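Exercise: predict the fold of this chain.
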Amino acid sequence: MSLIEEGWPKKVRMAYLSIVCSHTVNGVAALHSHLLKTTLFKEFDALYPGKLQNKTNGVTPRRWIHCCNPKLSELISDTLGGIDEWITALDNLKLLMPYATDKTFVDQFIQIKTENKIALAKWVKEKTGYDIPINALYDIQVKRIHEYKRQMMNIFYVIHRYLEILDTPAHERKNKFVPRVIMIGGKAAPGYHNAKAIIKLITSVSQKVNNDHTVGDLLKVIFLPNYNVSSAQIIIPAAELSQHISTAGTEASGTSNMKFVMNGGLIIGTMDGANVEIAEEIGEDNMFIFGERVAGVDKIRKELYEGKRGYVGGRL
């Protein structure tokens, strides 16, 4: 718990110093806060009971529904009796649940999603030169490029799907595969070599897949360049499936998952960051959750560590 890290030269442990000097310290999602209190800052939590708290990060529906998806905002407002009925009281969106089986409402929602996909396809053409089909599942992962967020795993899946399509006789492909446009975007630290290598892999796979005419519109791969808030306002409303697939226990919050679900995107992801609280709100059966939970990841890490040390089952 020393504020000074011994060695040469000595260093100040800024995280420890901030805990001591702060009134309270907030984690940014329930899982994140729990891990801070039970692992990283366990001793400080014992020394200062109640000092480590949780304040889950959030995003504003004013920008991430009303501003970026005005037709969806209008549909919600018309259904619930006005914008003031939900824009500052998002819990009221639960009142839309009966309309999930209302054909008129569902048809309007699908039409809005289609128009958003058309707008994104136009943007992709302008920025990348690639034509992407509208009648395809838009599968999107946009966030910082980082190993823990696992864009690498996503692009490995793309390669797997591409090879599966090639291994399937041409006359069987349309019955076996839903056409899918997989889009990955994000920025990284300028000196982050591995992130740049991942981006290079994504763009190389994109060139290979998109120029394979035997695959056609069954699979397209796009790296979305220069990701920022302005482009996010075009990308997120068009998403039908959004990827939030960090290794459990590594994502503090990951607030883009909130932006996607507010625009009707389905999450495929791990039980990490704010995915946990989204699952509590909307039900895990309305998400595609996979992979180990934190306890499982810790168990695997322990087994790998002991394996490297030459231990098997606690013995040499």
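Check your answer against the key: The longest helix spans residues 103-128.
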